[in-house]
Amino acid sequence: AAAVMSYVAQKCGVCFRPPSIVLIYKADDGDKTRRRVMPVRNFSTFSDCGLAAEQLKNNPRHKAYLEGVSLCQLKKLYGLLRGHLAGESLAQSLEKLGQEETIDPDEDLNKLDDKELAKRKSIMDELFEKNRKKKDDPDFVYDIEVEFPQDEQLESCGWDVESGEEI
């Protein structure tokens, strides 16, 4: 049986001319750094970046190489490519992607459709995992107790008020 090669992705980027995803990687058999150019075909300003990223990641020709590249990163690269095809500058595309990746604290999430809500939740989950203190972090402290000041007047909320109506 032939040995299965594994590849370690080092950098992944996008090339606008010709439209392609470029991967810089190392094979496990040596220390040579290699470049793989994966052409992007049949992609327009109306294409779904998530679907295109999934198709590329699951493509049998590229699957082994893209093992170490997250689907989220590929979506971002396709987003940059779509912005370029729409005539946006790289700075504009990056700013637009940055706005999509941040959560507005004043936004009413109850007014969003299911797809947008799922997107916001995944962004919040990602942010939570990034900021979470793990047991192996150097500044991790187990069982922190925090005292909240009691001398300030507590704000009352409409939920707290007893209503005369029984439900």
From TrEMBL:
GO terms for cellular component: centriole; centrosome; ciliary basal body; spindle pole. Belongs to the CEP19 family. Pfam families: CEP19. This is Centrosomal protein of 19 kDa. The keyword RNA-binding does not apply. The gene is Cep19. Keywords: Cell projection, Cilium, Cilium biogenesis/degradation, Cytoplasm, Cytoskeleton. The keyword Cytoplasm applies. It is found in: Cytoplasm, Cytoskeleton, Cilium basal body; Cytoplasm, Cytoskeleton, Microtubule organizing center, Centrosome, Centriole; Cytoplasm, Cytoskeleton, Spindle pole. One of its GO terms (biological process) is vesicle targeting, trans-Golgi to periciliary membrane compartment. It comes from the Eukaryota.
